Amino acid sequence: MENYYLRVEAVNFTYFIYDTDKIQPMRGGSYLLLESVASLAGQKINGIELKKIMAGASIGLFSFKIADGNKAGDIVAGVRKILSDKTGGHATFVVDVLKSINNFERDNETITAMNRWQQFQQPTLVLPQKEAENKCSYDGVRPGETSVPTAEGVKEVSSSVKFRMDEGKKELKKRIYQRILKDGEFKEEFTDDLGALSCISDKGNLNNKMAFIYFDGNKFSKIRANKCTKEETLAAFSERVEERRKEFLCELIKKAQAEPDFKNNDAIRLETLLWGGDEFEIVVPAWKGWDVLRLFYKCMSNAEFDGVNLTHAGGVIFSNHKAPIRQIRNMARKLADMAKDKLPPDFKSLNHNKHDIALYIIMESFDTVGPDVKDFVRRYYGDGCYDDFYLTSDRMDNINEALSLMKKNGFPRNKIFEIIRIIKGNLPQQNDKIDTVLIKALSEVEEQDKVCAAIEKVIEGNYHRWLMIADLWDYAGREHA
């Protein structure tokens, strides 16, 4: 019996997940890819069992043994059929098999290259089989082949969008959480759209606002290349990451179950748009975004593999739920990439205190931010100053403590706005003017020394960090909001 590897990857999945701003087809596409790849583990094709090495959101690596190499093509055909059946034939996959040369590092590189070569030779989306007079109302690319009722009236949509909308219903969502959490009795319900997720009348200006949160593992590819030179170690790495993410999701669900404002009636306000592999994306209500961000880094605070810390970069966008979700997603990813600019080149130097790191944007208007997120951050915080606005676990704790104490002790918010006007105006003797306003504000609060010390832990001599206090006032320290 010879050992073979099979690698499958969903490619060009922008056209299967992120081709609309509607949450149901987006959710449906994401979950279908996750379920499709995961379903191959232990699958028997012509009596040959696929053994999982790793399976992420869109990539799976498996091994199998056969005596006759000519049968490898049958395995590929069987896998393609399974994937097509799961996704209605609307997703694009590459599938390759490789006979092992008993050098896993070389085998893995070779079969990955085979997938890439196959990807270059196929269209970026599955071509529709039917024609129509109008284009799809949601993806704007495929023909609108079928009509669906929506809140805005009847819409003409493509068969791909319709399939994903139908599959992205609550039952699939529940099934995915059940599989991730390995809970056979998982009975929770979830909100079905971003409006239901974000609407709550008693949250003031946070009503109808959401937090889009994106995380990506720092240098995971380099860690795998260096540490996972054997089949067993790659499987162990994948399992380690999966287990730590599962721990976070368990804690998040517990939090949502226990906190009434994390629910709309009995439905949990949570969307998971990407799960598995190096990265994932979730959406929660704006008033929970800060707490969820802190919870994630708390759960990951000691994650490691073979002596290397597994750290994450994050991007968080606080916005109205009607903001275009595709653009929001791209912005969150760009923020995480900017956060990675602070990482050392050597993955062995990563540590959780400094490199579990995130950036955020409070987006009042999409037009205000514009297409260049990095330029916006520079302009908003001041060129040369924005490097000091990264969030780490310690800094988040300090911000939360400061805002909690300021609210509890009646720190006048109008004084914060006054300080921001001084900063934005680049007024002469800026720091002295800020100190004068701060002294006046502290004279109006209780526990002055405590509040002042907490503020200093946030500012640390950089007066521009008052922008963080102003930005996050509504989001952090909410126990005293």
Structure notes:
With 481 residues, the protein is of the alpha+beta class. It has three domains: 2-120, Reverse transcriptase/Diguanylate cyclase domain (Alpha-Beta Plaits); 193-368, 2-Layer Sandwich (Alpha-Beta Plaits), CATH 3.30.70; 400-480, no CATH class. It contains 18 helices and 19 strands. The strands form six sheets. Strands 13-14-10-17-18-19 form a six-stranded mixed sheet. A hairpin with a 2-residue loop joins strand 15 (304-305) and strand 16 (308-309). The termini are far apart.
Secondary-structure map with pairings?
Layout: E1 2-10, H1 23-38, E2 44-45, E3 48-49, E4 51-55, E5 59-66, H2 72-87, E6 93-99, H3 104-120, E7 146-150, E8 153-157, H4 159-167, H5 170-181, E9 189-190, H6 194-198, E10 209-217, H7 220-227, H8 231-258, E11 263-264, E12 267-268, E13 271-274, E14 279-285, H9 286-299, E15 304-305, E16 308-309, E17 312-320, H10 325-339, H11 352-355, E18 357-362, H12 366-369, H13 373-381, E19 391-392, H14 393-408, H15 413-425, H16 430-442, H17 448-459, H18 466-472
Parallel strand pairs: 9-12, 17-18
Antiparallel strand pairs: 1-5, 1-6, 2-3, 4-5, 7-8, 10-14, 10-17, 11-12, 13-14, 15-16, 18-19
Helix pairs in contact: 1-2, 1-4, 8-9, 14-17, 15-16, 15-18
